[in-house]
Write a structure and sequence with these properties.
heterodimer; A: 13 helices; B: globular
């Protein structure tokens, strides 16, 4: 064996102990104290204005406002802790206890950062409150008048059922048509070429046309031209058809990304067992691709659900149209806010649901036994 | 009797030649080891035999039947020619049982119950009977590779192609996999292996081929290739392998 040169000559170049001084804390701590005080004061003022606006001598409202105002001071606590740490650090440094000083300084900076993060949140809340009560509460009065909300609530919710039906109908069709288009784009060989081009054209065109225009053209055009079958369909079906046309193009792209993300070795493994191209696609590639594209697929579905608010242009009374009817009769936008709230409430659980699905699937594949 | 015949096969990826006229004959029950540096064409040769890659010229005959060129039913060919890959390539969304029974039930025409019975039998042989319902991600690399071998064997192939099947495994897991191959060799299965396990090649091979730059530079019995290689390139390759402690 030849003598191997060491990578580093430890004899000539001994390791020096690292004695880095801890970073200073004082400035950050003081900034945190100042900012959290300012945030709390702003929040307090905004709350006071809100309380004055409600004009109530209601004790409950007062109590809520006071509690909220006190909560606005919470960011000050970690800020004060940071100041204490800063002092400790200085005294430890004076005693040359560097390791402890470093430890204390790190804790202090962490407290100060925490305080700043919470103070920022208080600021945002204060700004929102201030916005809501500007013009003597005109904002709140326009968007959130309780009496109008109560009046519109039932009709709007009933009309929302139309949105739900259109969304579900379109989603089912989109799942099928989107996959068909994605697979069409993958057909190999010269025989598949025309189909590939068609599928590509479809995706390009329907992703380019604004959904509202497709709705308009389908809603009025098909019945105007007396197209057989379509002229006899109720408008809600035409809405489903139009949304399917638009969203299949998006979903086809999502599927395609998923199909292409499956490693070629999966193809090789399946084909080497004698599975044909379509069999491989069906049993090996598509199932894996769909698992993978679930989150972006649901994203597109949430987009689709929101676009059901556009079907009013083809004369279908959906939740949004209904709320506008009420809104124009009372000269107030609170009924429209109701629709917004309903959409939020309908969407959030779906996002959580898919998160759970993805987690469960991963856990199952990791854990093993089925 | 010659079972597998490879005649003057050329293959290139774009302008990069990978196989430059490979010819090889494999008799039934023979175990042929392909050795050589990375990029010498071992894997490509195996993939060509299974028609996962199309060849540019030459011909490949399995059981006297040409399997290259137009009009050949590749799916039938592949049923008879099994393949195991370096990175296992199990189907991650299927249980071990489903991985093994997929091909027999889908294309072998085997009823589900019979296929599952056979799968359990195979799993017992490779010592993984308790993993029947597990998913690939829950298995170690060695276990996955053993399942991959069982999956290929479930189709009762006439020849098995093994593409560096232990190269991605931790050293302590290699033994279990090689033991299965040893068992298959003893059972008389015709096999072609691309491998870096020289000791193993020496032990099981009836024929060793040294590939260099897309050609079979030297071939012979393991004793001759490992102890008395005539080509300078083979000597260089083997001495590097010995230096790395792999022989």
């Amino acid at each position: 064996m030849s003598r191997v040169m060491p990578f580093r000559d430890t004899a000539a170049n001994p390791l020096k102990p690292v004695r880095s001084a801890p970073p200073p804390v004082v400035r950050l701590a003081v900034a945190a104290v100042l900012i959290s005080v300012v945030a709390a004061v702003c929040f307090g003022i905004a709350l006071r204005n809100l309380y004055v606006l409600t004009g109530a001598s209601n004790l409950v409202v007062l109590a809520v406002c006071v509690v909220a105002a006190l909560a606005g001071w919470i960011p000050l606590l970690p800020a004060l802790r940071a100041v204490t740490r800063a002092k400790e650090r200085t005294s430890l440094m004076r005693q040359d206890r560097i390791v402890e000083a470093r430890h204390t300084a790190a804790l202090g900076r962490e407290s100060a950062s925490t305080s700043l993060g919470y103070a920022a949140a208080v600021f945002v809340l204060a700004a929102l409150l201030a916005f809501a009560v500007t013009n003597d509460g005109a904002i709140a009065q326009t968007f959130l008048r309780g009496s109008f909300i109560a009046e519109a609530w039932e009709d709007v919710l009933k009309a929302f059922w139309v949105n739900v039906r259109v969304a579900i109908g379109a989603e089912i069709l989109v799942l099928i048509l989107g996959l068909a288009i994605a697979v069409m784009r993958m057909i190999p060989g010269p025989a598949g070429r025309p189909l590939r081009i068609l599928a590509t054209l479809y995706a390009d065109i329907f992703r380019a046309i604004p959904g509202i225009i497709v709705l308009y053209l389908v809603g009025f055009g098909l019945s105007l031209a007396e197209v057989p079958v379509f002229r006899d369909l109720p408008p809600i079906w035409l809405a489903i058809f139009a949304l399917t046309l638009t969203y299949s193009a998006y979903v086809a792209e999502v599927y395609r990304a998923g199909l292409e993300s499956i490693h070629p070795s999966q193809w090789a493994a399946a084909r080497s067992l004698g599975l044909s191209y379509p069999m491989t696609l069906r049993t090996v590639i598509i199932p894996q691709a769909i698992r993978r594209v679930m989150p972006p697929l649901l994203n597109d579905f949430i987009g689709l659900q929101k676009d059901t608010a556009l079907i009013g242009v083809m004369g279908v009374i959906d939740a949004f149209t209904q709320s506008r009817l009420v809104a124009s009769s009372v000269f107030n936008l609170s009924p429209v806010t109701v629709v917004a709230i309903i959409f939020v409430l309908a969407t959030i659980p779906q996002s959580r649901f898919v998160d759970r699905l993805v987690e469960r699937d991963q856990a199952r594949q990791r854990a093993g036994s089925s | 009797m010659t079972f597998l015949q490879i005649r003057d096969v050329h293959k290139s990826y774009g302008t990069t030649p990978v196989l430059n006229g490979v010819s090889l004959e494999v008799a039934k029950h023979e175990v042929v080891c392909l050795i050589g540096a990375s990029g010498s064409g071992k894997s490509t040769l195996l993939r060509c035999i299974n028609a996962l890659e199309t060849i540019n010229s030459g011909e490949i005959l399995v059981n006297g039947d040409e399997v290259t060129g137009r009009g050949v039913d590749l799916n039938v060919l592949r049923r008879n020619v099994g393949m195991v890959f370096q990175s296992y390539n199990l189907f991650p969304h299927m249980s071990v049982l489903k991985n093994i029974t997929l091909a027999p039930t889908m294309i072998g025409g085997v009823p589900k119950a019979a296929a599952e019975e056979r799968a359990v039998e195979l799993l017992e042989k490779i010592g993984l009977k308790d993993k029947v319902g597990a998913f690939p991600d829950a298995l170690s690399g060695g276990q996955q590779q053993r399942v991959a071998i069982a999956r290929a064997m479930a189709m009762d192939p006439q020849v098995l192609l093994l593409d560096e099947i232990t190269a991605a495994l931790d050293p302590e897991l290699v033994g279990d996999v090689l033991e299965i191959i040893r068992e298959l060799a003893r059972g008389g299965l015709t096999m072609l292996l691309a491998t870096h396990e020289m000791g193993f090649a020496r032990e099981v091979a009836s024929q060793v081929c040294f590939l260099h730059q897309g050609r079979i530079l030297e071939r012979g019995t393991p004793e001759r290739i490992f102890e008395d290689p005539s080509e300078e390139r083979t000597q260089q390759f083997l001495s590097r392998v010995i230096k790395a402690g792999r022989l």
